[in-house]
Design brief:
Elements (H helix, E strand, L loop, with lengths): L1 E5 L13 E3 L13 E7 L2 E4 L2 H9 L6 E6 L6 H19 L4 E7 L10 H34 L9 E6 L2 H16 L8 E7 L15 H5 L1 E8 L5 H8 L10 H4 L11 E5 L4 H4 L18 H12 L8 E3 L4
Parallel strand pairs: 1-6, 5-6, 5-7, 7-8, 8-9, 9-10, 10-11
Antiparallel strand pairs: 1-3, 2-4, 3-4
């Protein structure tokens, strides 16, 4: 079983109801007005449990277990992509450091229309990523309010939170933090996360700078780790697709931050050129394993070290990772 949170609208009704069976139409890419807090019991077998029950279950995890929210990327759907990747991520982290994290996918409505051209599909997903930001901002608000209420009890929830955002999932994260900051924190941003891991980020490479819309990613995190690869073949395609919106900018997933010296010391860049194309044909989804499952990405250990100790290793800000 797997817990997940989604901004997809269920087929049955937009109105939440605890313990109802729900399903989703992948052709509907309109982000829901509400969030749905769910449990996956098997393939295409989902039950809505609502936020208090999901938060209760997270609190009940072993004290040493941290949370790892996984925000998937472009052109991914629940079955088979998102939940298979989340399960694999959970297993790899357990193999590296048993009991360190509990993975919770945050599911936003990607397009499932594989017959259209890349640019059309890409733009549908980008619109969905923008619309899902405010929805996941409500998740932060709900969890913060719940945890504040729990803090008044004898056993408050002290879970540490980490985020892994892949590809266009970084756009969702950026939008969620901007919306939450404006609506719930008067433009400020407390430190919500122990680590934010930005993998193959499909955002502009200057987005983390102080005057840019991704600055709250830095403010919200103890550490921000940017994994990039110059030969990520999805990044040039993304850059070309963005010409339609008159946005011609290098992508962070291909170059890393535009200028690391402009960013606080808690931001790290990690060059993954040595292995990204050995794990994925396009060199874009390189944070899990190769197709056979035999070669594990060195990102797994790198993330586990940062989550476990709260510090990125090695401690120099520009790092090159290699396969063992």
């Amino acid at each position: 079983m797997m817990l997940f949170i989604t901004s997809r609208t269920p087929k049955q009704s937009a109105k939440s109801k605890r313990n109802r069976k729900i399903s989703f139409n992948y052709d509907n890419t309109a982000a829901a007005q509400y969030l749905y807090f769910c449990e996956r019991r098997g393939e295409d077998d989902y039950v809505e449990i609502k936020s208090p029950e999901l938060f209760r279950r997270l609190k009940a995890l072993p004290a040493e277990t941290q949370l790892l929210f996984y925000i998937h990327g472009f052109n991914n759907n629940m079955e088979p992509d998102i939940f298979n990747n989340a399960a694999k991520l959970q297993q790899l982290m357990d193999n590296e450091r048993p009991g360190l994290v509990h993975v919770i996918p945050l599911v936003w409505p990607c397009d499932d229309d594989s017959a259209v051209a890349f640019a059309d599909d890409y733009w549908d997903d980008q619109d969905a990523a923008d619309a899902s930001g405010p929805a996941f901002a409500r998740l932060l608000g709900k969890f913060d309010s719940w945890r504040r209420a729990e803090a008044q009890q004898a056993e408050p929830c002290l879970k540490r939170i980490n985020v892994l955002a892949h590809s266009m999932g970084n756009r969702v994260l950026k939008n969620a933090l901007n919306d939450w900051s404006e609506k719930h924190a008067a433009g400020n941003m407390p430190q919500l996360f122990r680590n934010t891991f930005m993998v193959a980020a499909d955002v502009k490479n200057e987005i983390l700078e102080q005057d840019q819309p991704g600055r709250h990613i830095v403010d919200s995190s103890r550490n921000v780790v940017v994994y990039f690869a110059n030969d990520d073949l999805s990044m040039p395609a993304s850059k070309l697709a963005n010409i339609r919106n008159k946005t011609l900018s290098r992508r962070m997933g291909m170059t890393g931050p535009e200028k690391l010296s402009r960013l606080p010391n808690k931001v790290y860049e990690v060059d993954c050129d040595d292995f990204n194309n050995k794990l994925d044909l396009k060199g874009h989804s390189y944070f899990l394993t190769d197709k056979s499952g035999n070669t594990v990405s060195p990102i797994i250990k790198h993330m586990a070290d940062a989550i476990d100790g709260g510090r990125v290793k090695p401690d120099n800000r520009s790092i090159v990772l290699h396969l063992p």
